[in-house]
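The pair is quoted verbatim underneath.

:::
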Amino acid sequence: MEPQRPAEPTRLGPYRIIGTLDAGGQADDARRRIARDDRTGRTAVLMLPHETLADDPGYRVRFRSEGENSRRLTGGWAAPVIDVAGPDADLPWVAYACFPALPLPAALAAYNGPLPEPTVRALGAVLAHALANWHAGGLVHAGVSPQATLLMADGPRLTGYGLVRAAGLNGPGRGASFGVDAFTLPPEQRAGERPSPAGDVYALGAMLCYAATGRRDVAEGTRVALPEGLRELLAVCLAQDPGQRPQPGTVARELRAASAPEAVGRLPDAVAMALARQAAAYPAQAPMAAQAHPEEAAATPPPGRSRRAVVIGGLSGAVGLALGAGGVAGWRAVGEGTGSQETSARRGIAPAPLWRHDLGSEPQQTPLLWRGKTVLIWTTDSVSALNLRTGKKIWSRDKLYPMSSLTLLGNGTFVSPDTSAFSVVSLATGRIKGVERRYDGVEGPAIYQFLGADKGICWFLTRKYANGGTGTEDHSVVCYDSARRKETWRAPLPAPYQGDGDTTALLLSTMLLLPSQGDDEDASSYLALDRRSGRKLWTRKFAGMKDESAKQRLVAPGDLLVSCDEHMLRGFHVVGGKERWRVATKGRVSGTPTAHGQAVYATDSRATTYAVDVRSGSTRWRRRSAAPLESSWTRAETAVSHSGATVFQVTDSEIEALDAADGSLRWRSALAGKGQQSAAPGQVVGVAPGIVLVLNGTILYALPVD
């Protein structure tokens, strides 16, 4: 380990720099230092800006911003973030709970050459699997490089999130950027394009080339020097055309498939011993007495110590003995090992919001989410679209004047209904693409409710008065093609199914189900229409299903219609009408249940959440909150994360995130509202890959999840 240059700070916030991780003291993307946290005595890894860009104000802002964003990376192969420098710090930095660890160049130096092929395969499979998960959550790493890859005894960790974005602004002709490992930079990004998932695959391929050859380039000579088993796969990863590169999940499978079933990627003895020597050289120490440091106020307040951090801090002095006795440290080569699943937050403590947006006025309906990218919001003042990942406003219009709920059409547009017409509006720009005026209620029928939409086709209810507005109403269901701006079909709506604009229709793959609107005390019925033709398929009564519970029904896998009635969850076969199962609840299920996979989740008025198997009706688990619902009118809403791993239970005082596998508590949250909502916990109003949206009054929050 080389001593620090005098010009470099020896203290950053609560951290004292005690060594360097950079091989030969140099790094192409950012500087990584070994530091000790005076508050805990732990040894950590600090990432600092590249020295050539440390004085650039724009770069410092972007570097810190990407450090904050790196908290969003989930899974065991992302380096856990402990702290990020505050916005007023002279030099930005990010602190990781990764020690002992060697950047890939330092590991090659310790081994005195390229790593063995099994180790490279294990490294690539693990990181490709991690990239696949992050891409599925809408995140692009944009910083994969040898220096950003830390080798640890239990597997690799990636630092450097967003370094490509931090090092250069988007724009044509950017060329090579300082602070970026040049040979890992994809050709399209050298030309000024934005980082993309395909760019991560290129960078991964370049990094694996380096690990297998020791050469910091991807030229033909380097590719020829690759082990034969890696040559073809890495060549595809390094394709000039981003569209020709494989998906990271495919890369992980290829790396696993070429290995023998029992093969385990291993750290060579020399690398394992280097980790042991590092741990012995920088052991944890007792925390120093609390004292004020010039930059400490700029640091993010430290979260509670995680179990993983305690283990690292407590065992770092003994790692040398453990690794020395074992000789090698094994990694799972499958790329799907758990790694360290702990985060820097304690179990039970909610994650920090990714962003917070004040809508400015009362929302008129639940925000609508489009493909995990856009949030559509209608308030008393305007209709707006936000970027789901950043919370930034894309556009806002105050002249749409919708008279009823907006409806997503499923093709990048939405419907904004007016009194005598409806507009089809672009989600990307907020511009009106077309106006339909034939349903004006004068010359033609009037629309009184939109039922749903899919791929540009929407269904709505109309009525037309006979004799100039007096006499019998003519009710119909209309299927409308928004792209062709024409009706596909129109079907009469029988009297029992005619409502007042409060119909909760269910949209299945082949049919549209409309509930009865009568007052039958014994049963509720449904009218089924063919989605494509409007042909009546059947009408059927469901015994024990009350009309007033229509808003609390959903269709679950296996053609199951699930209903909540008083103190009972019931599952009916949609087509046959036969009751398949029932589950008694302690309290009244007043909110709408939700389904994911083969489970239905519902919360009752006693704040007990139930997980019910849709096939058998058996209760997988139930959990009663410590903060029960005290108000009889409170709706016990339930939601499930996009991945299905987390169930959200809303009580009078908080939102609880439960593990979908067993109902155990993950965290609690009560986000601050505004005005009359300041004491309320908020409501879960949407989920997307890696994100849950919570609305409290006029404040919308995005929280990381799973």
Observations:
- The longest strand covers residues 446-454.
- The mean pLDDT is 81.
- The longest helix spans residues 117-136.
